[in-house]
Specification:
It contains 13 helices and 20 strands. The chain is an alpha/beta fold and about 400 residues long. Helices cover about 35% and strands about 30% of the residues. Helix 9 runs antiparallel to helix 10. The protein is globular. Strands 6-5-14-15-16-13-18-17 form an eight-stranded mixed β-sheet. The protein has a six-stranded mixed β-sheet with strand order 8-3-2-12-20-19, sandwiched between helices. The protein has a four-stranded mixed β-sheet with strand order 1-11-10-9. Bound molecules: flavin-adenine dinucleotide. The site of flavin-adenine dinucleotide has 35 residues, from helix 1, strand 3, strand 4, strand 13 and strand 18.
Length: about 400
């Protein structure tokens, strides 16, 4: 196959990005805002995101506002006023965290919930409007070479691209990471996520909701929150379970009856919610151990971003949030004074890895707390009763 080289005349201002998910698009916007051209390669022929929701803490919403996306976000997001924790067994409220105005005052931005496709579209439109990013769809990064003054990328279709740096935003099974670090594969956590979206008008009134609710039960938890300006409800139920088949591409259709069986003896209200939804999809949750050094986030002219660098369990609802934070940090190091690219990326890695590791570790811990049984569960409920909001708030994260 003849090789095809894509050169940029202003090569010294060119960044290559692998992956066009939320992380890759955020990285593209960051490069553009820092005054760099970027070429983004996405292996699929069309951009898209799974039909599910995403929660964004004030730490993430603040960054989107700084990119000038506040008005666009308002058109598609929901802004819950309250996060409630309830017992999955009895339905009792165990704790509350006011969001809305409190988050705005304390952390400079609201707590938002959004359909993943809406967030993806928002970022894509911003990238297209800036006009400095070339989007290559159907282009699958196969390998790369850091040749000192540049990085050369080869795609599966034989195309070759050259840039000053490569950002691997190619997700959990990242090829860039594999080439860069050659470390172990992601871990299978033994947790399965059932995900669904339903129009609120299709639900009986008592099941509709404009807030975030986290139902905690032994070995399981369920999270529900509004998306699409409150018109739709996103529901995620996480239970223990085994992967059958290839975990690499594990997004399966499933049935309400499977989920009901997995949920065991939960309260009527929760069972009613599950029964009201027909279209569930089932995901195997994978992660990596928390990062231990900056070397896991960048080396030479190659940086990792989002799930490629620090895939995490979803129990802090911050995986995409950390990808967006990574991107804003990338923008800062690319905007800074003239210096070698490897130094810029080293500064990016030094700045990001500890925070990412902390969120990964807290996500694992939260999973244990959410799914607690016996004494641990009793302690959790008692602590929530006494400390309430203080226990549920995460100032170090939301202020960060
Ligand atoms: C059940 C569940 C609930 C979650 N809830 C939240 C939440 O509430 N809040 C939150 O912030 N996060 C949440 N997350 C985490 C969040 O979904 C991820 O952290 C985030 O989507 C990662 O984005 P990414 O761009 O890094 O990776 P991905 O979304 O995986 O994107 C990677 C992209 O790279 C492309 N690609 C892969 N390989 C190549 C290649 N070789 N060449 C070119 N392109 C390639 C892929 O096609 C894909 O488009 C949740 C996750 C799960 C599983």
């Amino acid at each position: 196959m003849p090789s095809r080289w894509y050169h940029n005349s202003a090569m010294e201002k060119q960044i290559l990005i692998a992956g066009g998910g939320i992380g890759g698009l955020a990285a593209a916007l960051a490069c553009s805002r820092a005054g760099w051209s970027a070429t983004l390669m996405e292996r699929t022929r069309e951009f898209g995101e799974v039909g599910a929701g995403i929660q964004m803490g004030p730490n993430v919403v603040r960054r989107l506002h700084a990119w000038g996306l506040e008005d666009d976000l308002k058109k598609v997001a929901a802004y819950p006023e309250m996060l409630r924790v309830r017992s999955a067994d009895t339905g009792d409220v165990l704790g509350r965290l006011p969001l809305g105005e409190r988050a705005r005052k304390l952390y400079g931005a609201p707590y938002a919930t959004i359909h993943r496709a809406d967030l993806h579209t928002l970022l894509l439109k911003a990238v297209e409007k800036d006009g400095t990013v070339q989007l290559h769809l159907g282009r699958w990064l196969e390998s790369f070479l850091d040749i000192g003054p540049a990085v050369q990328v080869t795609a599966l279709d034989g195309a070759q691209l050259e840039g000053q740096a490569l950002v691997g935003a190619d997700g959990l099974w990242s090829t860039v990471r594999q080439n860069l670090l050659n470390d172990a594969e992601p871990r299978i956590t033994g947790h399965l996520a059932y995900r669904a979206l339903i129009a609120q008008r299709e639900l009986p009134a008592f099941l509709r909701s404009s807030n975030v609710t986290v139902w905690m039960g032994p070995d399981l938890h369920v999270v529900q929150y509004p998306v699409r300006r409150g018109h739709w409800l996103n529901v995620v139920a996480i239970v223990k379970g085994q992967v059958i088949g290839d975990v690499d591409d594990w997004d399966q259709e499933t049935h309400t009856s499977d989920l009901r069986a997995a949920m065991g003896r939960t309260c009527n209200r929760l069972q009613d919610l599950v029964s009201a939804i027909n279209n569930w999809r089932l995901w195997a949750l994978c992660d990596r151990p928390p990062m231990v050094s900056a070397g896991e986030q960048a080396k030479g002219r190659v940086a990792l971003l989002g799930d490629a660098a620090h895939p995490m369990r979803p129990y802090m609802a911050q995986g995409a949030g950390m990808a967006i934070e990574d991107a804003t940090c990338l923008q800062a190091v690319l905007s800074g004074p003239e210096r070698p690219m490897a130094e810029r990326l080293q500064a990016y890695a030094n700045e990001r890895w500890r925070r990412n590791a902390r969120v990964q570790a807290r996500s694992i811990r939260n999973g244990q707390i959410f799914h607690a049984k016996g004494l641990m569960r009793w302690g959790r409920d008692a602590a929530m009763d006494v400390l309430g909001t203080r226990l549920l708030d995460v100032p170090w994260l939301y202020r960060g």
